[in-house]
User: Fold these one by one.
Assistant:
Number 1:
Amino acid sequence: NAGVTQTPKFRILKIGQSMTLQCTQDMNHNYMYWYRQDPGMGLKLIYYSVGAGITDKGEVPNGYNVSRSTTEDFPLRLELAAPSQTSVYFCASRSQSGGEQYFGPGTRLTVT
Amino acid sequence: GESVGLHLPTLSVQEGDNSIINCAYSNSASDYFIWYKQESGKGPQFIIDIRSNMDKRQGQRVTVLLNKTVKHLSLQIAATQPGDSAVYFCAERNSGNTPLVFGKGTRLSVIA
């Protein structure tokens, strides 16, 4: 199993541009999550999904959108990038019965 | 709302000594707790977890202690090694479907 994979690893955006951060897991996990981590800080939940077709807002959803059309994929969309969205983005997943969330390697995004 | 915090933002220990990282949580309804290790430039990695029906759980060189009376969680690392240098996060969850809530993290530095 590859686990949780994220692409791209790094990206620089100009203010106002849009992009999609990709997240895929091959563990057949129902639950998937998107977090952002600012320098020296903990992880803040952006959006999460408990299964295909279901998404819910987390602590900091403004400026982001998600979709969950398949069990494997949970893309995160930034429509109008702002400097405040400069951060490292982590995707995670877990099984319905499991406790541990498995994290991807992260996407480092800079908005200038 | 729910919050998970840490007493010490940084901790320096001598190689070979034991390390103790502390965490306070505020939600008495939390029933699952977990510790993650995050090395520089990587995603969080699972260390150990504990459910609220337990007070102590041991892994390889790590022990998690849960004191529900004072809402306190700790991670003990025995014979700390240079490879243990990282940021450690505690997280909690208060029901099976809700996402983990993360604390700010403690940076552990091991002095050789």
Number 2:
Amino acid sequence: DTEVTQTPKHLVMGMTNKKSLKCEQHMGHRAMYWYKQKAKKPPELMFVYSYEKLSINESVPSRFSPECPNSSLLNLHLHALQPEDSALYLCASSRGGLIVGTGELFFGEGSRLTVL
Amino acid sequence: DAKTTQPNSMESNEEEPVHLPCNHSTISGTDYIHWYRQLPSQGPEYVIHGLTSNVNNRMASLAIAEDRKSSTLILHRATLRDAAVYYCILRLGYQFYFGTGTSLTVIP
């Protein structure tokens, strides 16, 4: 069982809708990640938060807006998405700080997004 | 641009060892080599990682070339539950970038 919980598991939205994906972990990890995965492709890194501050933004369009309200929660706010944004969105966490580089990523099962 | 290259697919007979290769010729001295696998309809799962020395854990072994430009994930006895896409990743800090992965088929 994964220790990273993502909700909702499935989401269908129109191009004018505003929705959010949520991710939660209680392992005390201080780094949290959003990845996007299209069918039969590897996950692509979108954002990384370290100690609740945005550390990496891989030039993701502004219609995706991440938020890290505390050390256990990570949100991805969605607005004015396009059909090509339909994908599996994966959240992950890892230990941060001095042991960066050695710890592994723990992934959730993902939120499957369909944009109509 | 992928920092790692892997064969697209491999097959193995059940209960036989499997050697999954990965090339990472542009690896830097501080990049860690990570392996993950992804079963259908699940998020990726950590398998093993290393820096310079070979590593063993309950899931697999990781053999790292002396020049660190390649590595091999070794599953000692493949089972049907090992059928998955295996990703070789170079990690620098918070930067985990997945390569294209190898889809492993295990034949009963």
